[in-house]
Write a structure and sequence with these properties.
alpha+beta; ubiquitin binding; 5 helices; single chain; UBA-like_sf; C6orf106_UBA-like; 206 residues; Immunoglobulin-like; elongated; 25% helix; four-stranded antiparallel beta sheet; Protein ILRUN; 29% strand
Length: 206
């Protein structure tokens, strides 16, 4: 138990108590923990599990009430960096979606994290891409190569970060929304951009 969480006046109070009468101990525990609105049954439980030692019962109560800290990884979507974002795309055409993401937590990501497809329309065969382990505050760009559906219309798929070893999902949901149209220009825009750049820092697979 973190004793800094217990008021020094409270410690002084129960250190001066010497009664062994169980009814008195129950009342004293309720009085000392008045702010917690402890009922008689609960007071008896904590006293009994500590052999009716008042100080030990109070320590157990605070240990029980202290929340367990879980350091789950955190991710924040910074921006959609897709070349040609918002343009429509022809049916059955390959294209790439890209995003800048950040480790928005206080702990480094574990090894083996990935961006995982979790729902909506599956666009192509790729359902996950590996992502490097980022330290707190670090930003990276991730990209996934996809293929548009065979029919015209508006389609969505849903992606999230995942720890592969535990299958725990975390961070902001990433939505992919595209409009499929026979006159779409997204693929051409991306091809022209690729020709104009000699290198890419994308993290991609598939």
């Amino acid at each position: 138990m973190n004793m800094d969480n217990v008021d020094h006046h409270l410690l002084h109070q129960f250190s001066c108590l010497g009664t062994t009468d169980r009814d008195d101990l129950v009342k004293q525990l309720q009085k000392l923990l008045a702010g917690s609105q402890l009922n008689e049954t609960t007071a008896e439980f904590f006293l009994d599990m500590n052999n009716w030692n008042l100080q030990a019962a109070i320590c157990s109560y605070f240990d029980f009430e202290s929340p367990v800290q879980h350091n789950f990884p955190c991710m924040m979507l910074i921006s959609d960096s897709t070349i040609g974002e918002g343009e429509s795309i022809p049916p059955l055409t390959n294209f790439r979606k890209s995003w800048h993401i950040q480790n928005s937590g206080r702990e480094a990501w574990p090894d083996g994290v990935c961006l995982q497809y979790i729902g909506g329309v599956q666009m192509g065969e790729c359902t996950k891409i590996p992502v490097p382990s980022l330290g707190p505050g670090e930003i990276t760009e991730v990209s996934v190569d996809l293929q548009s559906p065979p029919h015209c219309g508006t389609f969505q798929s849903k992606w999230r970060m995942m720890v592969k070893s535990t299958e725990i999902l975390f961070g902001d949901i990433i939505w992919i929304t595209i409009t499929v149209s026979e006159s779409g220009t997204l693929a051409i825009t991306q091809q022209l951009h690729q020709l104009s750049t000699s290198s890419s820092n994308d993290t991609r697979m598939c």
